[in-house]
Design the sequence.
């Protein structure tokens, strides 16, 4: 009996250790993951999530492509999803392990970049536009002229987010084209305009949520949810939708091909497909999500926030960013390389 009790105790100890060691490695954009969400997930599942931040789609892709990252899940934007799939960096999802997959909103289910959502679960969606402190400039900020042909008040004081596809898409639309253009003459004009404008920018940086909120920076090309958070800290911050055209993005979670904690990853993917948990994601970073029924759990101040509810007059100007290929991607990469010099 004593031996049996000892053996039982050892087995229980091993089981407890195994439970304590359950973990998950999430590779996500900086300041984009709600600590409350992670605490709830760990409390319900016993799985500890470690989040590693990145600052751009290109940074994340390069890290994953190099191999041996140790991450289980990554959160790329929609136009990068086909790249991850084509390179074999992510695995197709076993939907039987995601029973709440059906909660994905219809408009985010039949997406061109991942039909039927076989590779990804929505995280958040939003827009790229103009963040402005009204004490710096009180004029119309619904135009990319703010950063490409800046008014005197703004020149030398505006930050431009160093996200290649957003910047190139906005500049192309400002000059009358559409993202992923293969028009060589147009893309030459885009290059020239960006190079002409760059000396009038103060920086090309991330981290604008806090900097706009604290008045360290007063104008930026940035994302709507971040500017919403800045406004909550600083009532002078406003957000503009460029009338020439602005990007719409969706970020989603994908399971890496070399993930070590696969079952834990599936637990997380199903967890974020629940409306109340998707709402926690939005409540922190202040973007829409993509899960039906999450609205009732979200903060009341998000319902009619100008950064979330796109004004009717600008809705048609929003362009969902696709994956550029061929000549268009060559032009984009070449222009971006030159802009970084």
Sequence:
């Amino acid at each position: 009996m004593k031996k049996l009790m000892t053996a039982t105790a050892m087995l229980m100890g091993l089981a407890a250790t195994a439970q304590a060691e359950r973990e998950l490695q999430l590779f996500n954009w900086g300041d984009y993951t709600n600590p409350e969400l992670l605490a709830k997930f760990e409390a319900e599942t016993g799985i500890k999530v470690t989040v590693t931040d990145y600052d751009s789609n290109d940074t994340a892709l390069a890290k994953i492509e190099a191999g041996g990252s140790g991450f289980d899940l990554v959160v790329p934007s929609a136009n990068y999803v086909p790249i991850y799939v084509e390179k074999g960096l992510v695995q197709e999802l076993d939907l039987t392990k995601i029973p709440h997959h059906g909660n994905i909103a219809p408009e985010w289910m039949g997406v061109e970049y991942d039909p039927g959502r076989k590779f990804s679960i929505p995280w958040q969606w939003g827009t790229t536009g103009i963040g402005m402190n009204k004490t710096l400039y009180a004029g119309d900020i619904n135009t990319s002229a703010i950063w490409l042909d800046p008014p005197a008040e703004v020149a030398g004081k505006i930050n431009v987010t160093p996200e290649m596809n957003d910047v190139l898409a906005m500049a192309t639309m400002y000059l009358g084209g559409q993202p992923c253009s293969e028009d060589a003459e147009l893309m030459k004009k885009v290059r020239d305009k960006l190079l002409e404008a760059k000396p009038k920018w103060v920086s090309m940086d991330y981290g604008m949520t806090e900097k706009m909120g604290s008045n360290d920076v007063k104008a930026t090309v940035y994302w709507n949810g971040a500017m919403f958070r800045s406004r909550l800290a600083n009532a002078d911050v406003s957000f503009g939708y460029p009338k020439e055209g602005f990007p719409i993005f969706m970020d989603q979670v994908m399971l890496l091909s070399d993930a070590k904690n696969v079952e834990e990853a599936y637990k997380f993917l199903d967890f974020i497909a629940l409306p109340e948990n998707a709402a926690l994601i939005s409540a922190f970073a202040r973007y829409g999500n993509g899960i039906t029924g999450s609205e009732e759990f979200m903060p009341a101040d998000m319902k009619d926030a100008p950064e979330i509810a796109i004004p009717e007059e600008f809705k048609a100007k929003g362009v969902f960013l696709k994956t550029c290929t061929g000549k268009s991607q060559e032009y984009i990469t070449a222009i971006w390389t030159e802009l970084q010099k």
The longest strand covers residues 121-133.
